Amino acid sequence: MGKIVFLIVDGMGDHPIKLLSNKTPLEYANKVNINSLLPHAALAFPSVLGRLAPESDSGVMADLGYDPKKYSTGRGWFECLGLGMEPREGDISLRVNIAEAVGSKLRSVRTYLSKEEFAEIEKAINEQVKLPLEFEFKAGEGYRGGLIIRDEKKRLSQFVSNNEPGYTVKFFGDKKLSFASKSKSDLIPKIKALKSNAVFTEKILNQFISEANKVLLKTDVYKKRKANGLPLPNYVLLRDGAIHDPKLPDINKKYGKLWAAVVGMPLEKGIASAAGMSLMKITELDDLDEDLENKADSVSRALDKYDAVYVHVKQTDALSHLGKYVEKYDAIERIDRILVYSILQKIDVSNGDTIVITCDHRTSSELKRHTNDNIPVLIANRKFNRVKDFGETECKKHHLKNISKATEIMPFVMKL
User: Residue 12: which CATH number?
Assistant: First the structure.
């Protein structure tokens, strides 16, 4: 096998939209470079988590060949690892959202902040929140952050709920993941212990939330935004607390190929790092074209040194959550025009190289949330014959029978 590129376009899959001629954004988009792969392509249409709507952590893990039900200990571990923090066994690592609330009702799960604003909030929380345990909060991208609470006495437990509505915790023995669920209320719940040994953890996490919310109201960021009528950062949402290392098998040893990752978001950095991939130095950029050009350059450099490259694009998922389906199909066209074009200057699927294009989950632009639908997958390699198009409809009609689960994509590709 030649070079391999595994491109995950976050939340790319969608539902048909009436104003797009009853096509999905992927089907509606003009995909010149992806279409050039169709003479040597096969399609797949696997499930990710069955009836559960996956979060990005479980979706990415599954796409890369790791069964979330076997390895996931909670998204927080990956989130903190990807932020350059040091999650340890027995401490609890959590994903954090800076949100906006009115009283105890949630207005928005995400308040987008500039790097300067988030840096001020990070400093204020770390200096002013008082807990009986040591903790570290770190700002991530936009509204996302990470939190580690440390306890030398090892009293913390992963068996706690989330306080972000729309993400429900589910356990598989001692393994833990959250799945997207339709929220029945905009009331923000308290974190609750799901086992008796988690009562102490419940108390600590709710204390952190209460104190952090008070600190947010005192920041200049909050005061300036309120004066200017901007979305307010006044509530902390915690989810997916993990106390154990997921211990992902090394992907390089598993398949005998050296892997690099071109990823800008903390979660994906954490998963790639845990899997043993070498991280290319890259920063997530606000401007989509600049971000894609930056990733394209990094993929090109990675292919000079490594056998295989995992690259992740986040913006399509964010647009889906905002209901911006026009911007979503436009983003897919830009990904095709900039990133896929650049990749195809470095690899040749007619000469033994392989490219996989897929997503970690579907995100409905009309529902503005993740769904449990099967995901579209394109695998281009000289061993395959022509397919008509790459989209949800064609993938459902003409899918590979031996890829029924997302966890089967990677093993299949590595055997080509």
Answer: 3.40.720.10
